[in-house]
Amino acid sequence: MPEALHFTSIFDLIIQSAMPWFGMDIGGTLTKLVYFEPKDITPDEQDREAGILRNIRRYLTRNSAYGKTGHRDTHLQMDNVEIRKRRGSLHFIRFQTTDMGNFLSLAKQKGMAELVTTVCATGGGAFKFEKDFRDQVNMKLAKFDELDTLIKGILFADLHNRTECYYYENARDIVKSEKRAFNFSQPFPFILVNVGSGVSILAVYGPDNYKRISGTSLGGGTFLGLCCLLTGCTTFEEAIQLATKGDNRKVDKLVKDIYGGDYNRFGLPGDLVASSFGQMHINDKRVSVSREDLANATLVTITNNIGSIARMCALNEKIDRVVFVGNFLRVNPISMKLLAYAMEFWSNGTMKGLFLEHEGYFGALGCLLQFNGELAAALNDNLDHHGCEGEETIEVPTNSDNIRPSSDNPSENTNCPTTR
C-alpha cells in the first residue's frame, strides 16, 4: 500500500510539526491549559515565527497573567521535556471557566484556528463548549476520558519531575508537619483520590488498568457551598483564607467534651472530633463562633470524611499508597495537611497521604500527550485502512484492557477530525 503509506508519513509529519501543541481540561470552575513550547524550532516553524506562531508563543510565555482570571503558574513550568521527539518546556495556565468567552475571543484574535483545527480536551466543558469552539473559532474538540487523561498526566509528570510526589512528615502535628519528597518511581498499585467538586476514588494497577472503587458527593464543591452559606464568602480562595485562621474545636464536639478526656479503651484522644458541628445547637457557642471557625470546621468535616473513605478503600484493595489530587488541593496546604493527618491517624502510621506538585493540571497534560500520541496513531491507522479521500473522521482509541469506571463517569469515544 505505497500510496497509503505515503499519506501516513505526511500526516505523521504534520501532527509532529503543527504548532501550537496544547491540551485542555475544562472543569466546572476552572479551565486548565498545558502548552508545549518547543526549543528545537524547525526551519518551517522559523519561517512562520514572524507571524501567528511567534505571537502565540510570546503571548503565552512572556506573560504570567491574562485578563482578569487567567494565570500562568510559573513555578510549575517543566523544562527540557521531550514529547514526540521534540524537546521544550511545558507551561501551565488556568482561568475561570466563566471566562471561556474571553478565551475564545483571544484565540480568534491571535489567529490560532489558522494553525490548528482540533483541540484535545477533557472535562464536562468539552461537551458544554463544543458548539462555541466550532462556531466562534472554527475549532473542533476531540474529547478524551477524564480518568484516562488524569492517570497519563500523573505518570508523565512524575517521570519528568524528581520531586513531583511528596508527603508530610510528622503529619499528626499539623503546625509542625513538613513537606518531604517521596520516591514514586514504581507507583503501582496505588489508590487515587481525585478531589474536585465531588470525589472519585480509583484503584490503579497499571498505566491502562484501573477501576473506580468509590466516591462521595461531599467534596470541594460542598466545602465552598457550605462556606458561602455559613460565612458569606464568595470565592474558594476566600473560604480557604478564612479556614486557615479558624479553630474547628469551637464548632465541633470533641471526644473530651463527651468523656472529659481521652477515650483510652479505643485509643481515641480527647481532641479528636466526635461530632462535626456538634456544639452548634448550643446558643452561647453559636453566638460566639467566628466566620473563620465555621470555615475551618467545614474544611475539617470534608477532609475527615474523604480521608476515612480513602483509608477504607485502601484496606479493601490491600493497597498501601494513597495519592490525593484535584483542584480542591490547589493553593490549599491546610487541606493537604488535614488529609495527611487523617491518613496517619486512622492507619496508626501505616499509610501516608501522598500529594503531587502539578495538582489540577494532570487532565490537561494527559490531553496534550493523547494529542501527540494516540490521536496521531489513530490518524495513521485510519489512513492505512481508508486512504485519504474526502474529510475522514476517526475515533479516539481506548485501551480494551482498561478497567472502565462506573457508569457515572463514562468514557467517550468521540469522532475526531484530522488536524492540519
UniProtKB/TrEMBL annotation:
<dbReference type="Pfam" id="PF03630">
    <property type="entry name" value="Fumble"/>
</dbReference>
<dbReference type="GO" id="GO:0005634">
    <property type="term" value="C:nucleus"/>
</dbReference>
<dbReference type="InterPro" id="IPR004567">
    <property type="entry name" value="Type_II_PanK"/>
</dbReference>
<dbReference type="GO" id="GO:0015937">
    <property type="term" value="P:coenzyme A biosynthetic process"/>
</dbReference>
<dbReference type="GO" id="GO:0005524">
    <property type="term" value="F:ATP binding"/>
</dbReference>
<keyword id="KW-0418">Kinase</keyword>
<keyword id="KW-0067">ATP-binding</keyword>
<feature type="compositionally biased region" description="Polar residues">
    <location>
        <begin position="396"/>
        <end position="420"/>
    </location>
</feature>
<comment type="similarity">
    <text>Belongs to the type II pantothenate kinase family.</text>
</comment>
<dbReference type="GO" id="GO:0004594">
    <property type="term" value="F:pantothenate kinase activity"/>
</dbReference>
<keyword id="KW-0808">Transferase</keyword>
<feature type="region of interest" description="Disordered">
    <location>
        <begin position="392"/>
        <end position="420"/>
    </location>
</feature>
<protein>
    <recommendedName>
        <fullName>pantothenate kinase</fullName>
        <ecNumber>2.7.1.33</ecNumber>
    </recommendedName>
</protein>
<dbReference type="GO" id="GO:0005829">
    <property type="term" value="C:cytosol"/>
</dbReference>
<keyword id="KW-0963">Cytoplasm</keyword>
<keyword id="KW-0547">Nucleotide-binding</keyword>
<dbReference type="InterPro" id="IPR043129">
    <property type="entry name" value="ATPase_NBD"/>
</dbReference>
<keyword id="KW-0173">Coenzyme A biosynthesis</keyword>
<comment type="pathway">
    <text>Cofactor biosynthesis; coenzyme A biosynthesis; CoA from (R)-pantothenate: step 1/5.</text>
</comment>
